[in-house]
Amino acid sequence: MASRQIKWGILGCSSIGERAVIPGIKGSETGVVAAIASRTETKAKETAERLDIPKAYSSYEAVLADDEIDAVYIPLPNHLHMEWTLKAAEAGKHVLCEKPIALTAAEAERMAEACERAGVVLAEAFMYRLHPRYEKIREMIAAGDIGELRGIHGTFTFNGAANKSNVRFVKEWGGGSVYDIGVYPISAARLVTGLEPEAVTCRALFSPEHGDVDMMASGLVEFPNDVSLTFDCGMWAEFRNTLEILGTTGRIEVPSAYIGPQNIVLHSKGQSTELEMPTLNTYTLQADAFARAANGEAPLPFAPQDAVLNMRVVDACLKSAREKARVTL
Question: Which stretches make up the GFO/IDH/MocA-like oxidoreductase domain (predicted)?
Fold first, then answer.
């Protein structure tokens, strides 16, 4: 348990914040949601009252100026992540930033450097990685439970195409499926292999009726040792979020890899065994891990440089999809 509770300020009244991150912080041992801000005063006050948050501000600047706030959560549209992370760092606030952390690896690097200079913690909000099942998966691979690793396949799709006003469909704001959900299988493959990709090939459906963003994308991400991730992500397809790790003598199946039920299935030597994992709120795990780092009690499980490296792959995927070419890293 952290020695000091972290007082959080929330920049924006986003659905992910209201639905998951704020309840996760409230359920943690280490955090208190002390303030929330919106560009609209009425919305800030209504949200604060509904979620039982003590302070409501009509500007993000006001949260940063509040001396009682230790850390901010940034769930703003993707193109605003760097701007408000830099401002938060300058104000001496720790930062939990929604994924993708930025629009490019260069932006992510700038954010990481600014937070390091300011002596504040910066983390990308990939909550799923904090569940112990991913450490279990890494242990199973290392122990040879599926033989030699041969390949990984990841998916994350949902159908939100009908809502044409969705911010995910604004190209200039960092819209598109690779930014929004493709980042999950990419980060998961890097996590379970412990390796960084060498090249990427990606193809995408760019939809003129959705701001010309990639509404569906499929990719091949080449890792060292001739292991590859194949993935697809989409915002105009049936829902799924899966991960399959294939070896020479078995495979590990994660039926709900990022959200939903948390069990995993080991297929090995002709048998399939469902491994029961503890049911944990990964948003709460994220809040507690962040607080331990902010309090100087433990390092972040994933340093800011991890976010930079993930964005390098995202950059390559988008470049490949636009140019219809293989991109080396």
Answer: 134-253
Is the pTM higher than 0.90? The answer reads yes
CA 77 to centroid of chain Cα atoms: 14
- pLDDT of 93: 98
Site of tokens 């969705």 = 166
**CB hemisphere CA count around 74 (13 angstroms):** 30
Q: What is the pLDDT of residues 121-150, one digit of tens each?
A: 999 999 999 999 999 999 999 999 999 999
Distances from the Cα of 164 to the Cα of 119, 123, 168, angstroms: 41, 31, 9
Q: In this structure, what CATH number is given to the domain that contains residue 26?
A: 3.40.50.720
Please name the residue ranges forming H helices in the chain: 15-16, 22-26, 41-51, 60-65, 81-90, 105-118, 132-142, 177, 183-193, 282-294, 304-323
Identify whether residues 21 and 98 lie together within a single domain.
Answer: yes
> What whole-number distance in Å separates Cα of residue 283 and Cα of residue 98?
12
pLDDT band at 3 (very low <50, low <70, confident <90, very high): low
| Residue 268 three-state SS | strand
Residues 292-324 pLDDT 10s: 999 999 999 999 999 999 999 999 999 999 999
Backbone torsion region of residue 146, taken as left when φ is above 0, otherwise alpha when ψ lies between -120 and 50, otherwise beta: alpha
